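Why this split exists: single-chain examples teach little about how molecules sit against one another. For that reason, every record in the complexes split bundles all components of an assembly together and asks for one structure covering all of them. Below is a record exactly as it appears in the raw files.
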Amino acid sequence: MDNLPYFLGGAAITVFVSLIAWVLGLPLSLIIAIARIQRIPIVDLVFSLYVSFVRSLPSPLLVMLLYFGLPVVGLDLNPLVAGIIAMTINTSAFNSEIWRSAILNFPSDQLDAARSVGMSPNQSFWRIAFPQIWQANISNFINEATFLVKSSPAVGIIGIDDLTRRAGKIAASNYEPLPTIVLGMMLYVVVLFAVSLASRQLERYFHDRYQLV
Amino acid sequence: MAKLEQPIDAAQPLPVIQVVGLSKCFGSHPVLTDINLAIMPSETVCLLGPSGSGKSTLLRCMNWLERPSSGEVWLHGTQMGYQAGRKRLASEAELAKMRTRIGMVFQQFNLWSHLTVLQNVIEAPIHVQKRPKAEVVAEAEHLLAKVGLHNKLQAYPSQLSGGQKQRVAIARALAMKSDVILLDEPTSSLDPELVGEVLAVIQDLAQAGMTLVIATHEMKFAEEVASRVIFLDQGRIVESSDPKTFFAQPETARARQFLERYIHVGAI
Ligand SMILES: Nc1ncnc2c1ncn2[C@@H]1O[C@H](COP(=O)(O)OP(=O)(O)O)[C@@H](O)[C@H]1O
Ligand SMILES: [Mg+2]
Protein backbone atom coordinates (compact mmCIF):
# COMPACT_ATOMS: atom_id res chain seq x y z
CA MET A 1 0.00 0.00 0.00
CA ASP A 2 2.76 2.47 -0.87
CA ASN A 3 0.06 4.26 -2.79
CA LEU A 4 -1.83 5.30 0.32
CA PRO A 5 -0.39 8.84 0.55
CA TYR A 6 -1.26 9.31 -3.13
CA PHE A 7 -4.82 8.16 -2.39
CA LEU A 8 -5.11 10.40 0.64
CA GLY A 9 -3.93 13.32 -1.46
CA GLY A 10 -6.74 12.58 -3.89
CA ALA A 11 -9.22 12.41 -1.06
CA ALA A 12 -7.97 15.78 0.16
CA ILE A 13 -8.56 17.27 -3.28
CA THR A 14 -12.07 15.81 -3.36
CA VAL A 15 -12.83 17.23 0.07
CA PHE A 16 -11.27 20.58 -0.83
CA VAL A 17 -13.26 21.02 -4.05
CA SER A 18 -16.51 19.91 -2.40
CA LEU A 19 -16.05 21.98 0.71
CA ILE A 20 -15.21 25.19 -1.14
CA ALA A 21 -18.12 24.67 -3.53
CA TRP A 22 -20.47 24.01 -0.60
CA VAL A 23 -19.35 27.10 1.30
CA LEU A 24 -19.55 29.35 -1.78
CA GLY A 25 -22.76 27.73 -2.98
CA LEU A 26 -24.72 28.45 0.21
CA PRO A 27 -24.72 32.26 0.03
CA LEU A 28 -25.03 32.16 -3.77
CA SER A 29 -28.09 29.95 -3.52
CA LEU A 30 -29.59 32.24 -0.88
CA ILE A 31 -29.14 35.24 -3.18
CA ILE A 32 -30.82 33.31 -5.99
CA ALA A 33 -33.72 32.32 -3.75
CA ILE A 34 -34.25 35.87 -2.48
CA ALA A 35 -34.09 37.35 -5.96
CA ARG A 36 -36.71 34.88 -7.15
CA ILE A 37 -39.00 35.44 -4.17
CA GLN A 38 -38.84 39.20 -4.65
CA ARG A 39 -39.82 38.68 -8.26
CA ILE A 40 -37.33 41.20 -9.54
CA PRO A 41 -38.55 41.16 -13.15
CA ILE A 42 -35.74 39.97 -15.44
CA VAL A 43 -33.53 38.63 -12.67
CA ASP A 44 -36.28 36.24 -11.61
CA LEU A 45 -36.62 34.84 -15.12
CA VAL A 46 -32.87 34.47 -15.55
CA PHE A 47 -32.46 32.65 -12.24
CA SER A 48 -35.40 30.37 -12.81
CA LEU A 49 -33.89 29.33 -16.17
CA TYR A 50 -30.50 28.99 -14.47
CA VAL A 51 -31.94 26.67 -11.83
CA SER A 52 -33.78 24.39 -14.26
CA PHE A 53 -30.83 24.35 -16.67
CA VAL A 54 -28.22 23.50 -14.06
CA ARG A 55 -30.44 20.92 -12.39
CA SER A 56 -30.97 19.04 -15.61
CA LEU A 57 -27.32 19.09 -16.69
CA PRO A 58 -24.93 16.22 -15.80
CA SER A 59 -22.08 17.60 -13.70
CA PRO A 60 -19.28 16.52 -16.08
CA LEU A 61 -20.90 18.53 -18.87
CA LEU A 62 -21.17 21.57 -16.63
CA VAL A 63 -17.48 21.23 -15.77
CA MET A 64 -16.51 21.00 -19.44
CA LEU A 65 -18.84 23.82 -20.40
CA LEU A 66 -17.07 26.15 -18.01
CA TYR A 67 -13.54 24.97 -18.68
CA PHE A 68 -13.79 25.04 -22.45
CA GLY A 69 -16.54 27.63 -22.76
CA LEU A 70 -15.23 30.49 -20.67
CA PRO A 71 -11.99 30.96 -22.66
CA VAL A 72 -14.22 31.71 -25.65
CA VAL A 73 -15.48 34.78 -23.82
CA GLY A 74 -11.92 35.65 -22.79
CA LEU A 75 -11.84 34.03 -19.34
CA ASP A 76 -8.98 31.57 -19.11
CA LEU A 77 -9.33 29.60 -15.90
CA ASN A 78 -7.03 27.02 -14.44
CA PRO A 79 -8.75 23.64 -14.12
CA LEU A 80 -9.06 23.74 -10.34
CA VAL A 81 -10.83 27.12 -10.38
CA ALA A 82 -13.07 26.07 -13.26
CA GLY A 83 -13.93 22.84 -11.45
CA ILE A 84 -14.77 24.61 -8.20
CA ILE A 85 -16.92 27.17 -10.01
CA ALA A 86 -18.78 24.42 -11.84
CA MET A 87 -19.46 22.51 -8.62
CA THR A 88 -20.53 25.75 -6.90
CA ILE A 89 -22.99 26.48 -9.67
CA ASN A 90 -24.23 22.93 -9.48
CA THR A 91 -24.92 22.96 -5.76
CA SER A 92 -26.33 26.50 -5.77
CA ALA A 93 -29.16 25.45 -8.08
CA PHE A 94 -30.23 22.70 -5.71
CA ASN A 95 -29.78 24.68 -2.51
CA SER A 96 -31.70 27.65 -3.86
CA GLU A 97 -34.82 25.49 -3.96
CA ILE A 98 -34.30 24.54 -0.31
CA TRP A 99 -33.95 28.20 0.69
CA ARG A 100 -36.87 29.24 -1.43
CA SER A 101 -39.40 26.85 0.02
CA ALA A 102 -38.12 27.46 3.56
CA ILE A 103 -38.48 31.23 3.16
CA LEU A 104 -41.93 30.96 1.58
CA ASN A 105 -43.11 28.62 4.34
CA PHE A 106 -41.72 30.62 7.22
CA PRO A 107 -44.56 31.37 9.70
CA SER A 108 -45.94 34.79 8.84
CA ASP A 109 -47.10 35.34 12.41
CA GLN A 110 -43.50 35.68 13.59
CA LEU A 111 -42.90 38.21 10.83
CA ASP A 112 -46.04 40.12 11.84
CA ALA A 113 -44.60 40.38 15.33
CA ALA A 114 -41.31 41.61 13.88
CA ARG A 115 -43.07 44.28 11.83
CA SER A 116 -45.19 45.28 14.82
CA VAL A 117 -42.11 46.14 16.88
CA GLY A 118 -40.76 48.24 14.04
CA MET A 119 -38.30 45.93 12.31
CA SER A 120 -37.61 46.77 8.69
CA PRO A 121 -38.13 43.96 6.17
CA ASN A 122 -34.37 43.43 6.15
CA GLN A 123 -34.15 43.20 9.91
CA SER A 124 -37.04 40.79 10.19
CA PHE A 125 -35.47 38.56 7.59
CA TRP A 126 -31.96 38.51 8.99
CA ARG A 127 -32.79 38.57 12.69
CA ILE A 128 -35.95 36.47 12.80
CA ALA A 129 -36.47 34.31 9.73
CA PHE A 130 -32.92 33.52 8.63
CA PRO A 131 -31.57 32.03 11.87
CA GLN A 132 -34.55 29.72 12.17
CA ILE A 133 -34.46 28.68 8.53
CA TRP A 134 -30.75 28.00 8.72
CA GLN A 135 -31.13 25.87 11.84
CA ALA A 136 -34.12 23.97 10.53
CA ASN A 137 -32.44 23.17 7.20
CA ILE A 138 -28.87 22.51 8.19
CA SER A 139 -29.37 18.79 7.62
CA ASN A 140 -30.81 19.43 4.15
CA PHE A 141 -27.81 21.53 3.26
CA ILE A 142 -25.43 18.88 4.53
CA ASN A 143 -27.34 16.24 2.67
CA GLU A 144 -26.72 18.36 -0.40
CA ALA A 145 -23.03 18.33 0.52
CA THR A 146 -23.00 14.53 0.27
CA PHE A 147 -24.42 14.76 -3.24
CA LEU A 148 -21.74 17.29 -4.00
CA VAL A 149 -18.98 14.90 -2.86
CA LYS A 150 -20.49 12.16 -4.97
CA SER A 151 -20.70 14.27 -8.10
CA SER A 152 -17.27 15.82 -7.59
CA PRO A 153 -15.44 13.20 -9.75
CA ALA A 154 -16.81 15.24 -12.62
CA VAL A 155 -13.83 17.56 -12.16
CA GLY A 156 -11.50 14.73 -13.11
CA ILE A 157 -12.59 15.22 -16.68
CA ILE A 158 -10.55 18.41 -16.96
CA GLY A 159 -7.53 16.84 -15.30
CA ILE A 160 -8.05 17.60 -11.63
CA ASP A 161 -6.44 14.75 -9.74
CA ASP A 162 -9.22 13.93 -7.32
CA LEU A 163 -9.74 10.63 -5.54
CA THR A 164 -11.66 8.90 -8.33
CA ARG A 165 -9.17 9.94 -10.99
CA ARG A 166 -6.20 8.78 -8.92
CA ALA A 167 -7.88 5.47 -8.16
CA GLY A 168 -8.49 5.01 -11.88
CA LYS A 169 -4.89 5.82 -12.73
CA ILE A 170 -3.47 3.35 -10.24
CA ALA A 171 -5.95 0.64 -11.11
CA ALA A 172 -4.87 0.97 -14.73
CA SER A 173 -1.18 0.68 -13.89
CA ASN A 174 -0.81 -1.84 -11.05
CA TYR A 175 -2.88 -4.66 -12.55
CA GLU A 176 -4.81 -4.91 -9.30
CA PRO A 177 -7.95 -2.93 -10.13
CA LEU A 178 -10.23 -4.45 -7.53
CA PRO A 179 -8.29 -3.73 -4.30
CA THR A 180 -7.47 -0.26 -5.63
CA ILE A 181 -11.05 0.59 -6.33
CA VAL A 182 -12.19 -0.84 -3.01
CA LEU A 183 -9.68 1.37 -1.23
CA GLY A 184 -10.95 4.41 -3.14
CA MET A 185 -14.51 3.51 -2.23
CA MET A 186 -13.61 3.16 1.40
CA LEU A 187 -12.12 6.63 1.42
CA TYR A 188 -15.38 8.04 -0.03
CA VAL A 189 -17.31 6.18 2.65
CA VAL A 190 -15.10 7.66 5.36
CA VAL A 191 -15.60 11.18 3.99
CA LEU A 192 -19.36 10.81 3.65
CA PHE A 193 -19.64 9.18 7.04
CA ALA A 194 -17.85 12.15 8.59
CA VAL A 195 -20.23 14.51 6.79
CA SER A 196 -23.35 12.73 7.99
CA LEU A 197 -21.95 12.49 11.50
CA ALA A 198 -21.46 16.24 11.50
CA SER A 199 -24.99 16.68 10.25
CA ARG A 200 -26.48 14.59 13.02
CA GLN A 201 -24.45 16.40 15.67
CA LEU A 202 -25.53 19.81 14.40
CA GLU A 203 -29.14 18.77 14.17
CA ARG A 204 -29.10 17.48 17.72
CA TYR A 205 -27.37 20.62 18.92
CA PHE A 206 -29.99 22.91 17.38
CA HIS A 207 -32.82 20.69 18.50
CA ASP A 208 -31.68 20.63 22.11
CA ARG A 209 -30.83 24.27 22.11
CA TYR A 210 -34.08 25.63 20.71
CA GLN A 211 -36.45 22.75 21.29
CA LEU A 212 -37.56 23.26 17.71
CA VAL A 213 -40.23 20.89 16.53
CA MET B 1 -56.67 61.19 -0.72
CA ALA B 2 -54.87 61.79 2.54
CA LYS B 3 -55.56 64.98 4.39
CA LEU B 4 -52.67 66.91 5.86
CA GLU B 5 -54.31 67.74 9.13
CA GLN B 6 -55.84 65.70 11.86
CA PRO B 7 -59.47 66.64 12.60
CA ILE B 8 -58.87 67.75 16.18
CA ASP B 9 -61.50 68.66 18.72
CA ALA B 10 -59.94 71.61 20.52
CA ALA B 11 -61.98 70.95 23.68
CA GLN B 12 -60.46 67.48 24.07
CA PRO B 13 -56.91 66.30 24.71
CA LEU B 14 -55.13 64.89 21.67
CA PRO B 15 -56.17 61.26 21.08
CA VAL B 16 -53.42 58.64 21.17
CA ILE B 17 -54.95 57.06 18.10
CA GLN B 18 -57.59 58.59 15.88
CA VAL B 19 -59.13 56.66 13.03
CA VAL B 20 -60.92 58.76 10.43
CA GLY B 21 -63.22 57.39 7.74
CA LEU B 22 -61.25 54.15 7.48
CA SER B 23 -62.34 51.40 5.11
CA LYS B 24 -60.65 48.18 4.17
CA CYS B 25 -61.45 45.76 1.36
CA PHE B 26 -59.81 42.44 0.61
CA GLY B 27 -60.27 42.28 -3.13
CA SER B 28 -63.86 43.32 -3.67
CA HIS B 29 -64.90 42.13 -0.22
CA PRO B 30 -65.44 45.07 2.16
CA VAL B 31 -64.25 44.13 5.64
CA LEU B 32 -64.31 47.55 7.33
CA THR B 33 -66.56 50.43 6.33
CA ASP B 34 -66.19 54.07 7.39
CA ILE B 35 -64.65 53.50 10.81
CA ASN B 36 -64.28 56.61 12.98
CA LEU B 37 -62.92 56.40 16.49
CA ALA B 38 -60.56 58.10 18.88
CA ILE B 39 -58.60 56.37 21.62
CA MET B 40 -57.83 58.80 24.42
CA PRO B 41 -54.79 58.59 26.74
CA SER B 42 -55.15 55.91 29.46
CA GLU B 43 -58.36 54.56 28.02
CA THR B 44 -59.04 50.83 27.93
CA VAL B 45 -61.19 50.26 24.90
CA CYS B 46 -62.66 46.81 24.36
CA LEU B 47 -63.51 45.87 20.82
CA LEU B 48 -66.39 43.41 20.76
CA GLY B 49 -68.16 41.72 17.91
CA PRO B 50 -68.88 38.35 16.36
CA SER B 51 -65.98 36.58 14.75
CA GLY B 52 -65.47 37.85 11.22
CA SER B 53 -66.79 41.30 12.14
CA GLY B 54 -63.40 42.89 11.43
CA LYS B 55 -61.81 43.30 14.88
CA SER B 56 -58.42 41.92 13.88
CA THR B 57 -58.41 43.83 10.64
CA LEU B 58 -59.19 47.07 12.45
CA LEU B 59 -56.33 46.55 14.91
CA ARG B 60 -53.97 45.62 12.07
CA CYS B 61 -54.99 48.74 10.14
CA MET B 62 -54.19 50.90 13.15
CA ASN B 63 -50.48 50.01 12.96
CA TRP B 64 -50.60 49.52 9.20
CA LEU B 65 -49.79 45.81 9.30
CA GLU B 66 -52.70 45.97 6.87
CA ARG B 67 -52.81 49.02 4.67
CA PRO B 68 -56.24 50.69 4.85
CA SER B 69 -58.04 50.96 1.52
CA SER B 70 -59.05 54.49 2.43
CA GLY B 71 -59.20 56.75 5.45
CA GLU B 72 -56.62 57.86 7.95
CA VAL B 73 -54.95 56.74 11.14
CA TRP B 74 -53.42 59.43 13.31
CA LEU B 75 -50.96 58.67 16.06
CA HIS B 76 -50.48 61.58 18.44
CA GLY B 77 -50.74 64.05 15.61
CA THR B 78 -48.69 62.21 13.00
CA GLN B 79 -50.38 60.33 10.22
CA MET B 80 -49.56 56.62 9.99
CA GLY B 81 -48.26 55.54 6.65
CA TYR B 82 -47.48 58.98 5.25
CA GLN B 83 -44.42 61.17 5.23
CA ALA B 84 -44.63 63.94 7.80
CA GLY B 85 -46.92 66.72 6.58
CA ARG B 86 -47.08 65.34 3.04
CA LYS B 87 -49.38 63.24 0.93
CA ARG B 88 -46.64 60.83 -0.05
CA LEU B 89 -46.64 57.30 1.29
CA ALA B 90 -43.98 56.57 3.86
CA SER B 91 -41.20 54.14 2.98
CA GLU B 92 -41.07 50.77 4.73
CA ALA B 93 -38.34 52.13 6.99
CA GLU B 94 -40.38 55.19 7.97
CA LEU B 95 -43.43 53.02 8.55
CA ALA B 96 -41.35 50.70 10.73
CA LYS B 97 -40.29 53.65 12.83
CA MET B 98 -43.91 54.72 13.37
CA ARG B 99 -44.84 51.19 14.40
CA THR B 100 -42.44 51.30 17.34
CA ARG B 101 -44.93 53.64 18.98
CA ILE B 102 -47.74 51.07 18.85
CA GLY B 103 -47.32 47.76 20.67
CA MET B 104 -49.20 44.68 19.55
CA VAL B 105 -50.13 41.41 21.21
CA PHE B 106 -51.44 38.61 19.02
CA GLN B 107 -53.91 35.81 19.53
CA GLN B 108 -51.25 33.18 18.73
CA PHE B 109 -48.54 34.99 20.80
CA ASN B 110 -46.17 35.11 17.82
CA LEU B 111 -43.04 34.74 19.90
CA TRP B 112 -39.77 34.24 18.04
CA SER B 113 -38.99 30.61 18.61
CA HIS B 114 -35.19 30.82 18.23
CA LEU B 115 -34.89 33.37 21.04
CA THR B 116 -35.20 32.90 24.78
CA VAL B 117 -37.85 34.67 26.83
CA LEU B 118 -35.40 37.42 27.75
CA GLN B 119 -34.11 37.71 24.18
CA ASN B 120 -37.66 38.03 22.85
CA VAL B 121 -38.20 41.00 25.13
CA ILE B 122 -34.90 42.82 24.55
CA GLU B 123 -34.65 42.19 20.80
CA ALA B 124 -36.49 45.25 19.53
CA PRO B 125 -35.44 47.78 22.18
CA ILE B 126 -31.80 46.95 21.41
CA HIS B 127 -31.86 46.37 17.67
CA VAL B 128 -34.71 48.62 16.59
CA GLN B 129 -34.69 51.40 19.14
CA LYS B 130 -30.91 51.12 19.65
CA ARG B 131 -31.13 51.60 23.38
CA PRO B 132 -28.18 50.59 25.60
CA LYS B 133 -28.19 46.88 26.28
CA ALA B 134 -27.56 46.98 30.04
CA GLU B 135 -30.47 49.32 30.60
CA VAL B 136 -32.79 47.30 28.36
CA VAL B 137 -31.91 44.01 30.04
CA ALA B 138 -32.54 45.44 33.49
CA GLU B 139 -35.91 46.77 32.39
CA ALA B 140 -36.82 43.52 30.68
CA GLU B 141 -36.02 41.51 33.80
CA HIS B 142 -38.20 43.88 35.77
CA LEU B 143 -41.08 43.56 33.28
CA LEU B 144 -40.81 39.79 33.19
CA ALA B 145 -40.88 39.69 36.98
CA LYS B 146 -44.01 41.82 36.89
CA VAL B 147 -45.76 39.30 34.63
CA GLY B 148 -44.57 36.47 36.88
CA LEU B 149 -41.84 35.03 34.67
CA HIS B 150 -38.66 35.95 36.52
CA ASN B 151 -37.67 32.26 36.65
CA LYS B 152 -38.16 31.69 32.90
CA LEU B 153 -35.72 34.20 31.46
CA GLN B 154 -33.60 31.57 29.73
CA ALA B 155 -36.46 29.33 28.59
CA TYR B 156 -37.39 29.01 24.93
CA PRO B 157 -41.00 29.61 23.82
CA SER B 158 -41.55 25.90 23.14
CA GLN B 159 -40.94 25.22 26.83
CA LEU B 160 -43.74 27.51 28.00
CA SER B 161 -47.46 27.12 28.48
CA GLY B 162 -49.82 29.27 26.41
CA GLY B 163 -50.46 31.59 29.33
CA GLN B 164 -46.74 32.05 29.89
CA LYS B 165 -46.16 32.70 26.20
CA GLN B 166 -48.80 35.38 26.14
CA ARG B 167 -47.31 37.05 29.21
CA VAL B 168 -43.93 37.11 27.46
CA ALA B 169 -45.63 38.67 24.44
CA ILE B 170 -47.14 41.34 26.67
CA ALA B 171 -43.74 42.04 28.23
CA ARG B 172 -42.26 42.26 24.74
CA ALA B 173 -44.83 44.88 23.77
CA LEU B 174 -44.29 46.81 27.02
CA ALA B 175 -40.52 46.86 26.56
CA MET B 176 -40.97 49.14 23.55
CA LYS B 177 -42.48 51.81 25.80
CA SER B 178 -44.99 52.54 23.09
CA ASP B 179 -47.88 54.96 23.47
CA VAL B 180 -50.56 52.31 23.17
CA ILE B 181 -50.87 48.54 23.05
CA LEU B 182 -53.25 46.73 20.74
CA LEU B 183 -54.29 43.27 21.93
CA ASP B 184 -55.99 40.94 19.47
CA GLU B 185 -58.00 38.33 21.39
CA PRO B 186 -55.10 37.77 23.79
CA THR B 187 -56.80 34.89 25.60
CA SER B 188 -58.73 33.20 22.79
CA SER B 189 -56.20 30.45 22.12
CA LEU B 190 -55.56 29.66 25.78
CA ASP B 191 -56.83 26.70 27.75
CA PRO B 192 -59.61 27.96 30.04
CA GLU B 193 -57.54 27.53 33.19
CA LEU B 194 -54.82 29.82 31.80
CA VAL B 195 -57.08 32.71 30.78
CA GLY B 196 -57.17 34.24 34.25
CA GLU B 197 -53.43 34.76 34.62
CA VAL B 198 -53.25 36.71 31.35
CA LEU B 199 -56.34 38.80 32.02
CA ALA B 200 -54.90 39.70 35.44
CA VAL B 201 -51.77 41.08 33.79
CA ILE B 202 -53.83 43.10 31.32
CA GLN B 203 -56.00 44.43 34.11
CA ASP B 204 -52.88 45.61 35.96
CA LEU B 205 -51.78 47.50 32.86
CA ALA B 206 -55.17 49.15 32.53
CA GLN B 207 -55.07 50.22 36.15
CA ALA B 208 -51.55 51.56 35.73
CA GLY B 209 -52.89 53.92 33.07
CA MET B 210 -51.53 52.22 29.92
CA THR B 211 -53.62 53.00 26.84
CA LEU B 212 -55.08 49.72 25.60
CA VAL B 213 -57.28 48.58 22.73
CA ILE B 214 -58.39 45.00 23.26
CA ALA B 215 -60.36 42.80 20.91
CA THR B 216 -61.91 40.18 23.15
CA HIS B 217 -64.70 37.70 23.73
CA GLU B 218 -64.27 37.86 27.51
CA MET B 219 -67.46 39.74 28.33
CA LYS B 220 -67.01 39.76 32.08
CA PHE B 221 -63.52 41.14 31.70
CA ALA B 222 -64.72 43.83 29.27
CA GLU B 223 -67.48 44.85 31.63
CA GLU B 224 -65.09 45.19 34.56
CA VAL B 225 -62.02 46.65 32.91
CA ALA B 226 -63.10 48.61 29.85
CA SER B 227 -63.53 52.33 30.07
CA ARG B 228 -65.39 52.10 26.78
CA VAL B 229 -66.81 49.37 24.62
CA ILE B 230 -66.95 49.45 20.84
CA PHE B 231 -69.25 46.94 19.20
CA LEU B 232 -68.38 46.00 15.66
CA ASP B 233 -70.68 44.15 13.30
CA GLN B 234 -70.04 43.39 9.64
CA GLY B 235 -67.21 45.89 9.52
CA ARG B 236 -69.08 48.84 10.99
CA ILE B 237 -69.08 50.38 14.44
CA VAL B 238 -72.60 49.75 15.65
CA GLU B 239 -72.27 50.93 19.22
CA SER B 240 -69.71 52.82 21.24
CA SER B 241 -70.58 53.38 24.85
CA ASP B 242 -69.50 52.87 28.44
CA PRO B 243 -69.57 49.23 29.50
CA LYS B 244 -72.37 49.61 32.07
CA THR B 245 -74.75 50.95 29.44
CA PHE B 246 -73.62 48.51 26.78
CA PHE B 247 -74.03 45.37 28.86
CA ALA B 248 -77.20 46.47 30.69
CA GLN B 249 -79.04 48.20 27.85
CA PRO B 250 -77.52 47.72 24.42
CA GLU B 251 -79.09 50.18 21.97
CA THR B 252 -79.26 47.96 18.93
CA ALA B 253 -80.89 44.62 18.23
CA ARG B 254 -77.57 43.35 16.82
CA ALA B 255 -75.78 43.97 20.08
CA ARG B 256 -78.60 42.40 22.08
CA GLN B 257 -78.45 39.26 19.94
CA PHE B 258 -74.69 39.16 20.28
CA LEU B 259 -74.81 39.46 24.07
CA GLU B 260 -77.60 36.90 24.42
CA ARG B 261 -75.38 34.28 22.85
CA TYR B 262 -72.85 34.79 25.61
CA ILE B 263 -75.48 34.57 28.31
CA HIS B 264 -76.78 31.31 26.87
CA VAL B 265 -73.32 29.91 26.53
CA GLY B 266 -72.74 30.91 30.12
CA ALA B 267 -69.56 32.75 29.29
CA ILE B 268 -70.52 35.69 31.46
N1 LIG C 1 -55.80 38.68 4.62
C1 LIG C 1 -57.12 38.54 4.36
N2 LIG C 1 -57.51 38.26 3.08
C2 LIG C 1 -58.83 38.14 2.78
N3 LIG C 1 -59.82 38.25 3.67
C3 LIG C 1 -59.50 38.50 4.94
C4 LIG C 1 -58.13 38.66 5.36
N4 LIG C 1 -58.11 38.92 6.68
C5 LIG C 1 -59.40 38.93 7.09
N5 LIG C 1 -60.23 38.68 6.05
C6 LIG C 1 -61.70 38.64 6.12
O1 LIG C 1 -62.11 39.81 6.76
C7 LIG C 1 -63.22 39.56 7.60
C8 LIG C 1 -62.92 40.07 8.98
O2 LIG C 1 -61.89 39.31 9.54
P1 LIG C 1 -61.23 39.64 10.93
O3 LIG C 1 -60.77 41.06 10.93
O4 LIG C 1 -60.22 38.59 11.19
O5 LIG C 1 -62.47 39.50 11.92
P2 LIG C 1 -62.47 39.19 13.49
O6 LIG C 1 -61.10 39.47 14.01
O7 LIG C 1 -63.49 40.11 14.03
O8 LIG C 1 -62.86 37.76 13.66
C9 LIG C 1 -63.49 38.07 7.54
O9 LIG C 1 -64.54 37.86 6.65
C10 LIG C 1 -62.19 37.51 7.00
O10 LIG C 1 -62.46 36.36 6.25
MG1 LIG D 1 -59.76 38.19 14.96
